[in-house]
């Protein structure tokens, strides 16, 4: 279904050492730039400096997207993924922790850049995180059985406050290639959004 | 329901002139950093330069998030919003164009930073964009009748290719405070995801 580039574990480690600090710096920059009150002079100097950095990075630029890499151990490495990409500054990144083979959770701290309604997480990002985690657990954390979203339904009980969130998902049942999933998001005051999804196992 | 800061149209124009070029530069940086093949020396120099820019912006930093501003004309200004925030580098930003009072569309070009499956849009971002547009059209583009997502259901027909997308949404019917919405996403080859949503009109 999807194409993967192969890479050794040593290559993965090298690239993580090289590029993760850069990605983290950009995540920090995003928050600083979004919330700065600096005046014209500081902002113009910042913009010029950033454009110089961008030019230096574009001197050595791949043409396509990053896609996924696979190590000989069968470990997949999500470089560019919007949810969990190690090199994607838009990803918090989401880190999935398994609670047995059929359930998992994500703990994530969402700041100003994930805002929708004032002080709250964009409702669409709640959908994104739930789709991400339900799909991950439906795939069983394995690259051999990638599961694609068929349908997902979300029920918003109340707005989700920015800050620390717990996202959970578990397999409810399977029927042939159909995997029925459920999940939820909670902020400090309890559950805010619940989700049900039907995922389809794809052969790799 | 939500709090808004008031701001004159002149203040809005001043802030857009000051901060939009910075935000655009960071959007470009994100793509360059994600797809660079540069080696250790270039990447380390870039990281140091970025940390200096971040420090200069943090010298003048607001404590909270940006929320929304409202001009005396009743125009709302989405500074920080994850979908359409003018100052949010994570927002493409999404720009809604109305096709009459009950329907609207978004044309948007999504690059490498929005990837899920290799070469394709993260399924969760499809959900995010649809939630964003359905909610916007349910609110009628007006700040007086904000509509909150009650439920949203998404059906994924096939993966959505990165590149130019057309997202559409329209009001199907209303019953009291309930607003029934429908929408879809299409890539160059046609419809990829459809959505139905129930939104609740909140009094402001």
Please describe the structure with a list of short key phrases separated by commas or semicolons.
homodimer, 204 residues, alpha+beta, Thiol Ester Dehydrase, Chain A, 2 domains, three-stranded mixed sheet, 32% strand
Concise structural overview:
2 copies of one chain form a homodimer. Chain A is α+β, with helices and mostly antiparallel strands and 204 residues long. Chain A is built from 3 helices and 9 strands, in the order βααββββαββββ.
Per CATH, the class of the largest domain in chain A reads Alpha Beta
What is the CATH T-level topology of the largest domain in chain A? Thiol Ester Dehydrase, Chain A
Structural class of chain A: alpha+beta
Rg over CA atoms of chain A: 19 Å
Order of helices and strands of chain A: EHHEEEEHEEEE
CATH architecture of the largest domain in chain A: Roll
Q: Whole-Å distance between the termini of chain A?
A: 6 Å
Approximately what portion of the residues of chain A adopt beta-strand conformation?
Answer: 25-35%
